[in-house]
């Protein structure tokens, strides 16, 4: 199937000299929910801002629904709705006016019934005559979504849609995203929450230091993410790992006082019970033990390491 967005060889170096985006290729499928996952400063906003025509790329091309976003900007832009991270909307306007105005900006004929529908879907209908400045932060965010949808885009970008929003709004947002997808809208969202990607996305891209290091179906990625780290506080420090433990991938930490084992908590056999038995058999005792879910940072580090070894 022809992708709805084709990104080829895209890079961005800001005037400061910082390369925020390394050469990137990505094809977004029509009708999918794609989550771009990455820590602060990874380049998520840079990537989506280029696709939305807000930031000029240093090199590369983006085709959105058959239109080159630079050569054919207006057409490409009219297919796209963007909900930016920051709230940028006119404080003195009413909700109704600001959403209707947005629609007009894209050259769409007025359609009161459509605007009413999106305001209702976003629980904003009873606020339609309220001035933006009188709304709560969560309501303002809903207005940003209504604006982005005002011109009936086929592709919707949500930049960190749930950063700093309450549980209720997050739930509403997710419900709305699913509803839009049912209508055939392609959705690309950026997030640094794994749970958000897990809950929402069909596919996930991981971006780290300007590099898109992996793009995978969510289910496959979630398997990789289900890793845990077991740390054993040893009674006696070890200088080296005994050969009897070579069946497990272990690391000595804290100058030999800690033994660390990273395992897949989704696997049928995690290797934890057998490791415990082997330790007991060879007389290695421990004072305490703890497990923790691998953090996003660990996972990224793991993925980077893995992609480097695979490339080598
Ligand atoms: N206009 C700019 N000029 C110079 N550097 C910039 C500019 N905008 C972003 N950067 C830098 O580019 C890098 C990527 O930033 P970007 O906003 O794309 O990251 P992000 O993944 O969206 O992060 P966050 O999750 O914090 O929003 C960062 O180091 C940032 O400081």
From TrEMBL:
The keyword Nucleotide-binding applies. GO terms for molecular function: ATP binding; ATP hydrolysis activity. Pfam families: ABC_tran. It comes from Brevundimonas lenta. SUPFAM superfamilies: P-loop containing nucleoside triphosphate hydrolases (SSF52540). Keywords: ATP-binding, Nucleotide-binding, Transport. Gene3D superfamilies: P-loop containing nucleotide triphosphate hydrolases. It comes from the Bacteria. InterPro entries: AAA+_ATPase, ABC_transporter-like_ATP-bd, ABC_transporter-like_CS, ABC_transporter_ATP-binding, P-loop_NTPase. This is ABC-2 type transport system ATP-binding protein. The keyword Ligase does not apply. Residues 5-234 form the ABC transporter domain.
């Amino acid at each position: 199937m022809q992708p709805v967005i084709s990104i080829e060889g895209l890079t961005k170096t800001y005037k400061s000299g910082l390369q925020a985006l390394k050469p990137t290729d990505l094809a977004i499928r029509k009708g999918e929910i794609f989550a771009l996952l990455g820590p602060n400063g990874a380049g998520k906003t840079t990537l989506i801002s280029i696709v939305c025509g807000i930031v000029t790329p240093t090199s590369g091309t983006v085709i959105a629904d058959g239109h080159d976003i630079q050569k054919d900007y207006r057409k490409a832009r009219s297919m796209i709705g963007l909900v930016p991270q920051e709230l940028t909307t006119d404080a003195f306007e009413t909700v109704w006016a600001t959403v209707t105005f947005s629609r007009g900006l894209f050259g769409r004929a007025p359609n009161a019934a459509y605007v009413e529908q999106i305001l209702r879907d976003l629980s904003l209908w009873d606020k339609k005559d309220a001035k933006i400045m009188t709304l709560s932060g969560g309501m303002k965010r809903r207005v940003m979504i209504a604006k982005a949808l005002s011109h009936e885009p086929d592709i919707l970008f949500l930049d960190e849609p749930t950063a700093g929003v309450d549980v209720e709004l997050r739930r509403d947002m997710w419900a709305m995203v699913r509803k839009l997808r049912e209508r055939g809208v392609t959705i690309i969202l950026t997030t640094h929450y794994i749970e958000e990607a897990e809950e929402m996305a069909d596919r996930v891209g991981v971006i780290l230091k300007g590099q898109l290091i992996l793009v995978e179906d969510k289910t496959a990625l979630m398997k990789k993410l289900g890793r845990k780290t077991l740390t054993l506080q040893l009674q006696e420090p070890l200088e080296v790992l005994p050969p009897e433990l070579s069946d497990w991938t272990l690391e000595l930490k804290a100058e030999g006082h800690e033994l660390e084992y990273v395992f897949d908590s989704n696997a049928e056999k995690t290797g934890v019970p057998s490791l415990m038995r082997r330790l007991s058999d060879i007389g290695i005792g421990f004072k305490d033990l703890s497990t923790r879910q691998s953090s996003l940072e660990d996972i990224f580090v793991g993925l980077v390491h893995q992609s480097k070894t695979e490339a080598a």
